[in-house]
Amino acid sequence: MDTTEDFSPYRADGKLYGFVCVVTGASQPVGQAIIEELAAHGAASIYACDKTASPTSYTTLVTRLSHTQPNTKIIPYPFDVTSEDATLSLLDEVLAAFGRLDVWVCSSGLLGPASIHDTSPDDLARCFEAHSLAPFFALKHAPAAMGKLMEEEKEWGYPNASPKRQRYGSIVVVASVAGGYGGCWGPAYTMACHAAMGVVRAGVKVLKGSGVRINAVSPGQVDVGVDLQGVSFVLYCLGDGVEEKGVWLRGGESWCEGLVLTVILLG
């Protein structure tokens, strides 16, 4: 697949110029860091999704990016990642408004109880929904939207609009090193993160021949300010700089699929 023109890292306007993106978990530091990186690389539009999002959400982020990346449109979008109907509605809205979809980032998650004795079946179900059901819906439905092409001659009327000549897209799951071994937090969190990795690995076969790829970023041990409810523990989560790895997975100059990129920050 020759996508040199679309993905050139040497473009002055950014290697993701024209891309339309969805980022879940946008109210958390992880999601906001990813949104900033996507904007810095020229994305045309980013749906900043969170269950409680409203037009006034992320005011600081939106204001800052309006000055540094004025051609990137940030859209706060209320979204339930565990709902298949909500996923389909979001995809319909993206295609109606922008005509294409290129990137879907699953960065929402849930810790669950720290102790197995405090973990109910409902707690376990909620963790599985947040960590594995959300990327499953993305894998199931986003590739069809990513396969839509943009007509060169059509005027879409938004900044950074760009033709899409070939079918491609990228699904990135922001997971945790808990998806590779235990002991990072409670059992529900570890089990759900392993399930998320299962979605990524299953997706390799599902997406074969579609032009869409799926990968995961499994961050190392970094405190991002999550309330651990008095438990003395440092959460395995995303830290400064890791968002750049996610953009690398979304770019086109290096094709990889089913990759789980483990990132541990030292110092």
TrEMBL record:
Domain of life from the UniProt record: Eukaryota
Stored Gene3D superfamilies: NAD(P)-binding Rossmann-like Domain
EC number: 1.3.1.38
Reactions catalysed: (2E)-tetradecenoyl-CoA + NADPH + H(+) = tetradecanoyl-CoA + NADP(+); (2E)-octenoyl-CoA + NADPH + H(+) = octanoyl-CoA + NADP(+); (2E)-decenoyl-CoA + NADPH + H(+) = decanoyl-CoA + NADP(+); (2E)-hexenoyl-CoA + NADPH + H(+) = hexanoyl-CoA + NADP(+)
UniProt-annotated location(s): Peroxisome
CDD domains: SDR_c
InterPro entries hit by this protein: NAD(P)-bd_dom_sf, Peroxisomal_t2-enoyl-CoA_red, SDR_fam
Keyword terms, alphabetized: Fatty acid biosynthesis, Fatty acid metabolism, Lipid biosynthesis, Lipid metabolism, NADP, Oxidoreductase, Peroxisome, Phosphoprotein
Any one cellular-component term (Gene Ontology): peroxisome
Root EC class: oxidoreductase
Pathway this chain belongs to: Lipid metabolism
MF terms (GO), sorted A to Z: trans-2-enoyl-CoA reductase (NADPH) activity
Pfam families: adh_short
GO terms (BP aspect): fatty acid biosynthetic process; phytol metabolic process
Functional description taken from the UniProt entry: Participates in chain elongation of fatty acids. Catalyzes the reduction of trans-2-enoyl-CoAs of varying chain lengths from 6:1 to 16:1, having maximum activity with 10:1 CoA. Has no 2,4-dienoyl-CoA reductase activity.
Subunit structure as annotated in this protein's UniProt entry: Interacts with PEX5, probably required to target it into peroxisomes.
Protein name according to UniProt: Peroxisomal trans-2-enoyl-CoA reductase
Annotated source species: Coniochaeta ligniaria NRRL 30616
